C-alpha cells in the first residue's frame, strides 16, 4: 500500500499540463471528493496499527505534493498567458517566409557589371534628366546633326536644352569631364526614347555603357575585351565586328555573337544565320575626347553600349520586351539569382 502511494507521489512530480482543463482534471483526480487522496484516507482505518504512522506520513506527503503541483501549474499557465498577450503564442509554428526574387533586368545588369569589374572597370552613374551637351553635343552630335533623329527624344516641357537621356553615352562625357585617364568605367542605367511600344521596343529601357581611355589603347584591345565579355556572359567565343556608324566613335562597329541554330525556336531571332547583334562600339572619336578636355594626341580609348533588355531576352529566351514591365509575378518568380 505504502509503495503504491509512493508511486503516486512520483507520478504527481512528473505530471505536466498546458491547459486549465488538464490542471483541473488532475486536481479532481487527486484532491477531489472522490479522489485518490480521499480513498487513501478512507483506507486509514484498515491499516494495521504499527504501519499507521508511516502510512499517515506518505499520504500527507502525497497531499502536499499534489496541492503544490496544482498551484505551480496554475501560476505557470497565467504567466504564459500574460506573455501571449504581448508576443502572441510563442510556441506556434513559424509562418512561411516568402523570399522575393530579383528582377531579370537587375540580374543581367549585375552580371554585366561583375564581369567588367573583374577586369578593373568601376561602376559610374549619371542623371536620367540630361542637358543637350552631355546627351548630344559633346558626343559629336551638334545641333541639326542628322544622327540626332536616330533617337527620338523626350524633351522636358518647353526647354529644348533639358531632356530625358536617350542613351547612357551621356555618362561617358560626365565621367571624362570629372576624371583623368586612365579610365575604365561601366555605366548602367535607364534611358528613354519617344518610340511606339511593341514586343521588340519600349520607350523606357536600360543600357550599359563602357569606356576605356588610356595611352596606346587600340582596336585590338576593344575586340579582346568584348570577346572576354561574350565568353563570360554567354559562354560563346565566336564574335564578329561589322563596320557601322556612331557619331561618337571612329571607327565604329556593331558586335554580333555566333549563337548557332541549335536553340533557335523562332526564325526571326537570327533569321537563319546563327548570328545575333548584341552591342555597338568603337574607338572614341577625337572630337569627343577634346570636348571632355582629354588630349587625343596623348590618349585614345574605346567605348561600347548595349541594351540590357536585349541581352536578357537572348539569355532567357523572352520574346516580348513588355514582360519586363508588367510586374506579373508568374513571370518574375521564375528568376532566381545569387547576384
Ligand atoms: N549609344 C548607342 C545607342 O544608344 C550605343 C553605343 C554605340 C554606345 C557605340 C557606345 C558606342 O559607347 O561606342 O545606340
What does this entry show, briefly?
By secondary structure, the chain is α+β, with helices and mostly antiparallel strands. It is 41% helix and 21% strand.
Which structural traits does this protein have?
339 residues; alpha+beta; seven-stranded mixed sheet; three-stranded antiparallel sheet; 21% strand; binds 3,4-dihydroxyphenylalanine; magnesium; protein biosynthesis; ATP-binding
Account of the 3D structure:
- The chain has 339 residues and is α+β, with helices and mostly antiparallel strands.
- It has 2 domains: 86 residues; 232 residues, Bira Bifunctional Protein, Domain 2 (BirA Bifunctional Protein, domain 2, 2-Layer Sandwich), CATH 3.30.930.10.
- The chain has 12 helices and 10 strands.
- Strands 1-5-6-10-9-8-7 form a 7-stranded mixed sheet, sandwiched between helices. The chain has a 3-stranded antiparallel sheet with strand order 2-4-3.
- Helix 5 crosses helix 11.
- It is rod-shaped and about 120 Å long.
- The two termini are 73 Å apart.
- 29% of the residues are buried.
- It binds 3,4-dihydroxyphenylalanine.
- Its EC number is 6.1.1.20.
- Tetramer of two alpha and two beta subunits.
- It is an enzyme of class 6 (ligase).
- One of its GO terms (biological process) is phenylalanyl-tRNA aminoacylation.
- Belongs to the class-II aminoacyl-tRNA synthetase family. Phe-tRNA synthetase alpha subunit type 1 subfamily.
